[in-house]
């Protein structure tokens, strides 16, 4: 799948944000957790480092997860709501080590708003390309993490948060072995 580089980066960040809620311990419990996440994802711009900022990002995480579970009309409604509420005005910018890419808010906008608009702009590309089915939930029975399938043959089923694919393959192998042992005896 071929999306613009900034779209791929934004989508990967959305996956990583949403999946902070899918670990044994919530990955965004504290301001320090948020600082670490933002550094890892290379988010720039103003910060308040407040409890409200952390709360807003955690709420955004739930909103973005809902897009993974939505049909096209609901996804479009959510994306449009994010863009409308932020009064998004897309423009090309170049900063730090990034080449030209889209920003639709100012660097001074609240963190959760900047994150939401960046995600929404990436979802615009996904929706306009008719690629919503590339947004999935991990196929492992015991996992709720989200998956972004960028594979050519649209076959990615498991998340990258743990060993879901290995665990499921081992379970399937053991079931096959058990069935074979039951029919041989």
Can you offer a commentary on this structure?
The protein is mainly α. It contains 6 helices and 4 strands. β1 (91-95) and β2 (98-103) form a beta hairpin. α1 crosses α5 (111-128) and α3 (51-69) packs parallel to α5. The longest helix is centred in the last third of the chain and has 21 residues, at 164-184. It is globular.
Give a quick summary of the entry.
With 185 residues, the protein is mainly alpha-helical.
Average pLDDT over all residues: 92
Percent in strands: 5-15%
The helix fraction, in percent, is 40-55%
Shape: globular
Largest sheet: 2 strands, antiparallel
Strand order of the largest sheet: 1-2
Rg, nearest Å? 19 Å
What is the H/E string?
HHHHEEHEEH
Number of helices: 6
Distance between the termini: 48 Å
Structural class: mainly alpha
Low-confidence stretches: none
Number of strands: 4
Question: What's the topology here?
Answer:
Elements lengths: L4 H14 L12 H11 L9 H19 L2 H14 L5 E5 L2 E6 L7 H18 L6 E3 L8 E3 L15 H21 L1
Antiparallel strand pairs: 1-2, 3-4
Helix pairs in contact: 1-5, 3-4, 3-5, 4-5
Keywords for this structure?
mainly alpha, two-stranded antiparallel ribbon, 6 helices
């Amino acid at each position: 799948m071929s999306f613009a580089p900034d779209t791929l980066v934004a989508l990967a960040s959305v996956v990583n944000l949403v999946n902070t809620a899918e670990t044994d311990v919530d990955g965004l419990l504290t301001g320090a957790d948020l600082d670490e996440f933002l550094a890892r994802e290379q988010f720039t711009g103003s910060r308040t480092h407040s409890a409200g900022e952390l709360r807003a990002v955690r709420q955004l995480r739930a909103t973005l997860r809902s897009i993974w579970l939505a049909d096209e009309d609901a996804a479009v409604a959510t994306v449009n709501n994010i863009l409308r509420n932020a009064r998004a005005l897309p423009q090309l910018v170049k900063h730090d080590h990034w080449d030209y890419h889209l920003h639709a808010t100012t660097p001074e906008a609240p963190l959760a708003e900047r994150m939401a608009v960046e995600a929404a702009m990436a979802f615009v590309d996904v929706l306009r390309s008719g690629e919503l089915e590339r947004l999935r939930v991990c196929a492992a029975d015991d996992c709720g993490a989200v998956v972004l399938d960028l594979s050519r043959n649209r076959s990615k089923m498991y998340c990258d948060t743990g060993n879901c694919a290995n665990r499921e393959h081992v379970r399937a192998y053991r079931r096959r072995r058990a069935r074979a042992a039951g029919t041989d005896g």
